[in-house]
């Protein structure tokens, strides 16, 4: 009587048949996990860079508004003049259009225009209390306005 059955136990036969499938699924799982972690790392790097760029605009806005409020037109050592700072802030505003949406972008534009008005009126010894009051109100709300854009979620 001849039998074609193997002399190995049945579980060994299953292991031989399913072994390559198990190895492929395991390697695929590890590969998928590595790809997911790289995606998360890239996403976090993007958020960090976006935060840095947005925070730079926040700092420059606060610093320039502070100089406008102080009425200090002379420069500290290593500091550019107020006229030049206002002109340079225009490029900051242009960048902010791509980093902020809607209301905050409009608020930054209004702040920029008010800073120019207050400085111009001060130079020409014109009345600027209303513009300065409006600028001060916007300046006070600046941290709260930026909070949503500077939060790490």
Helical residues, percent: over 70%
Query: Please, what is the average pLDDT?
Result: 84
Write down the Rg. Answer: 31 Å
Order of SSEs: HHHH
- Secondary-structure-derived class: mainly alpha
Number of helices: 4
Q: How many beta strands in the DSSP annotation?
A: 0
Largest sheet: none
Q: What's the domain count?
A: 1
Instruction: Name the overall outline.
Output: rod-shaped
Regions with pLDDT < 50 over 5+ consecutive residues? none
Alpha-carbon distance between the termini? Answer: 73 Å
Strand content: under 5%
SSE diagram, text form:
Layout: H1 10-70, H2 82-99, H3 102-123, H4 129-150
Helix pairs in contact: 1-2, 1-3, 1-4, 2-3, 3-4
What does this structure look like?
By secondary structure, this protein is mainly α. Helix content is 80%, strand content 0%. It has 4 helices and no strands. α1 (10-70) runs antiparallel to α2 and α3 (102-123) runs antiparallel to α4 (129-150). The termini are far apart. The mean pLDDT is 84.
């Amino acid at each position: 009587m001849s039998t074609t059955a193997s002399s190995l136990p049945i579980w060994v036969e299953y292991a031989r048949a399913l072994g390559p499938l198990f190895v492929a699924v395991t390697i695929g799982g590890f590969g998928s996990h590595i790809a997911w972690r790289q995606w998360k790392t890239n996403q976090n790097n993007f958020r960090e860079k976006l935060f840095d760029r947005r925070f730079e605009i926040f700092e420059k806005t606060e610093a320039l508004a502070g100089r406008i409020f102080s009425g200090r037109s002379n420069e500290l050592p290593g500091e550019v003049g107020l006229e030049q700072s206002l002109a340079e802030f225009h490029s900051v505003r242009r960048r902010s259009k791509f980093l902020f949406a809607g209301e905050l972008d409009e608020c930054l534009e209004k702040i920029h225009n008010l800073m120019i008005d207050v400085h111009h009126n001060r130079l020409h010894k014109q009345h600027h209390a209303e513009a300065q009051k409006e600028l001060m109100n916007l300046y006070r709300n600046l941290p709260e306005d930026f909070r949503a854009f500077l939060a790490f979620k």
